[in-house]
Design goal:
Elements (H helix, E strand, L loop, with lengths): L12 E2 L5 E2 L13 E4 L2 H9 L3 E8 L2 E8 L1 E3 L2 E6 L4 H8 L4 E10 L6 E12 L3 H10 L10 E5 L3 E8 L5
Antiparallel strand pairs: 1-2, 3-11, 4-5, 4-8, 6-7, 7-10, 8-9, 9-10, 9-11
Amino acid sequence: MPASGTVPVPGAAPSAGGFPSAGGHPPGGDVPPRHLVPLERAEALRLLAGVPFGRIVFTSRALPAVRPVNHLLLDDAVVIRTHDGAALTAAAVGAQEGVVVAYEADAIDPVTRLGWSVVVIGYARPVTDPDRLARYREALRPWVAASMDHTVAIRPDLVTGFRLVAEAAG
């Protein structure tokens, strides 16, 4: 397997990005450009709830930081688990009102270039209510082999999203 972690396709030379290449283009190179169709809030949250992971964007030492995490959508919040040493844990616990974050998840096919992307912006706050904490910890199993002792809930104040479609909606 190539160092990039991609799976080789028989007869195709990998491109610089690790994708099998036909003439130096990533998969779907002959696919026409796609149209962006905005999503309504309810549809965006439904799509977000249907995938198991995304990326949290927050500030760490005055710089943007991005981490892949698994999540659940529960009680109208994006719920994630973190560990003691995590920069997000320190920021969320240390801020009285929580810390502003962005959370992004998507499902975009690199060959057909069809799919969707959703971004939630809101305040991330540590979950401290014992009943909610127990329920969230039972429902959300971390994917990494670390002690994830903290639970953070992101209130979706701003939800944006789009679909990549072949034809423009009319």
